[in-house]
Amino acid sequence: MKICVVGTGYVGLVAGTCFAESGNDVVCVDNVAAKIEALRQGVIPIYEPGLEELIRRNVAESRLAFTTDLAHEVERSPVIFIAVGTPSGDDGSADLSAVMSVAREIARVMDGYRIVVTKSTVPIGTHERIRSEIAGRTKHPFDVVSNPEFLKEGAAIEDFMKPDRVVIGASSPRAIDVMRQLYEPFVRTGNPILVMDNASAEMTKYAANALLATRISFMNEVANLCERVGADVDQVRRGIGYDRRIGHHFLFPGVGYGGSCFPKDVKAVIHTAHEHGMKFPLLNAVEDVNEAQKHLLVEKVTGEFGGDLAGRRFAVWGLAFKPRTDDMREAPSITIVEGLLAGGAEVAAHDPEALGEARKVFGDRVSYHRLNYDALEGADALLIVTEWNEFRRPDFPRMKRLLRRPVIFDGRNLYEPETMRQHGFTYLPIGRTAVRPAAA
Ligand SMILES: NC(=O)c1ccc[n+]([C@@H]2O[C@H](COP(=O)([O-])OP(=O)(O)OC[C@H]3O[C@@H](n4cnc5c(N)ncnc54)[C@H](O)[C@@H]3O)[C@@H](O)[C@H]2O)c1
After folding, report:
1. Per-residue pLDDT reduced to its tens digit, 110-153
2. Which pLDDT score, from 0 to 100, does residue 290 have?
3. So what's the pLDDT on residue 438?
4. What's the CA-to-centroid distance between 385 and ligand 1, angstroms?
5. In the chain, N or C terminus with fewer CB closer than 10 Å?
6. Are 216 and 422 in contact (CB under 8 A)?
7. Residue 260 beta carbon below 6 angstroms from any ligand 1 atom
8. What does DSSP assign to residue 435?
9. Rounded distance from Cα 86 to ligand 1 centre (Å)
């Protein structure tokens, strides 16, 4: 099948590549010429495990190509996926200008039946807006399908190739049949393709992200209470996770959620609720808790070192909003590093993949280190912000030698407090009792 995917970001690039991998003829379109030029040269604009190799293979086998020429691809492709960004506007609503401009361009050039598929996360009712935008500009028949994407950055290929479920919001049997054909290769192990109306499909994506964000904020509150009452959130997490109504996923406390999705999607749900005369206080609380949690690590630092951090140096391990990505959008590390800098401290930062993106955020206000141990040299403490696998079993004696003071603020609870005490560290995790070496 000939497919056009508009938007070559984390979603569009992964979706286009995976559709090509299953044998389709895919062209990915973006309006940033430099990005398309780079992709044509084999330079992948994002870090996503496994993506580069898949792109190379599908380009080499002529199933995948890149262009800025949307009009030409609309003429050629019966199915067009819209996977452009939908960032938060000033009022918290999702900014649909990119989605709508693509819809208008499709309407302008389509010369026969087209299926327009929204992969971007869009507010409930957007399918109607797209429908009327296109219908007002063309006489040709078309269907609008709402097909939200649930992939996780860092595991995007795996998630797309083996989705827990595929959600298809549509009413036209013809469009539903085409969508089934496209997704069948990815659900061979029996995971469902759920067909529903467009509005429910749009709502499903927001409900999923809002619930996941709620779990994170809930566990962060539980962790903060654990610290005050002397309970261990790691034990509590296990204790509740075995309840099948709860499950083990998304129960890890930390430094707050970030990324390009949860913050904006929670805001968008609140905004949609307001538009319909509803307040949704639960999600306001989820946001408030998250905002406070992003400041927690720096509060712990000032609790230990005092409010004036001038002359202090801190190492930060992990800058991306989550491991296995280079995405810095709304990363809690931004709040944390800015907090340290505002206190007058120097920051020595390390991330396995996000140093380039981090430099766009912090410029030369921090020092960047390709090796995690290099960031520790002469630092008063280490802050762990993102749980990259390579941080899980480090050389503790080496860390202790490099640090000026053996203090670790662990925003991801990577280590056992007792082990850290034995290694001679002052160790301050989240929701667990801090430990200090016997002599300290
Ligand atoms: N990133 C994720 O993990 C994820 C997961 C599920 C859903 N989503 C949703 O998918 C959508 C895309 O997210 P993303 O992270 O891939 O965004 P992104 O910002 O990484 O990529 C968007 C791309 O669209 C391009 N673009 C913007 N306007 C365009 C236009 N008019 N014509 C052509 N190209 C245009 C941009 O240049 C960019 O390359 C968003 O709605 C997001 O909420 C994202």
Report:
1. 999 999 999 999 999 999 999 999 999 999 999 999 999 999 99
2. 98
3. 73
4. 25
5. C
6. no
7. yes
8. B
9. 7
Instruction: Answer yes or no: is the C-beta of 8 below 6 A from any ligand 1 atom.
Output: yes
- Which of 63, 61, 22, 58 shows the shortest CA–CA distance to 184? 22
Ligand 1 close to Cβ of residue 68 (< 6 A): no
Q: Which H or E run contains 67?
A: strand 64-67
99, 12 Cβ separation under 8 angstroms: no
Query: How many Å lie between the centroid of ligand 1 and the Cα of residue 8?
Result: 7
Q: Is 18 a catalytic residue?
A: no
383: part of which helix (H) or strand (E)? Answer: strand 381-384
The first and second tokens of residue 434, run together, are 């801090």
Q: What are the residues whose beta carbons fall under 8 Å from the beta carbon of 109, sequence distance 6 or more?
A: 70, 71, 74, 75
In the predicted model, what is the mean pLDDT of the chain?
97
Question: At 439, is the pLDDT very low, low, confident or very high (cuts 50, 70, 90)?
Answer: low
Q: Is 429 exposed, middle or buried (0-12, 13-18, 19+ CB in 10 A)?
A: buried
| Whole-number Å distance between alpha carbons of 17 and 31 | 18
Calculate ∠ Cα 406-408-414, nearest 5°: 130
Residues in the chain: 440
Half-sphere exposure at residue 59, Cβ-oriented, CA atoms within 13 angstroms = 17
Lookup: tokens for 186: 């990815």
> Would the CB of 31 count as within 6 Å of ligand 1?
yes
Q: Which among 6, 10, 69, 70 is the best mutation to test ligand 1's pocket, defined by most ligand atoms within 8 Å of the CB?
A: 10
Name the pTM for this structure: 0.96
Residues 211 and 280 sit within 8 Å (Cβ to Cβ) = no
pLDDT at 401 over 90: yes
* Nearest ligand 1 atom, CA 150: 6
Q: CB of 63 within 8 A of CB of 23?
A: yes
Ligand 1 pocket, residue 118 CB under 6 Å = no
Check pocket membership of 85 for ligand 1, CB cut-off 6 A: yes
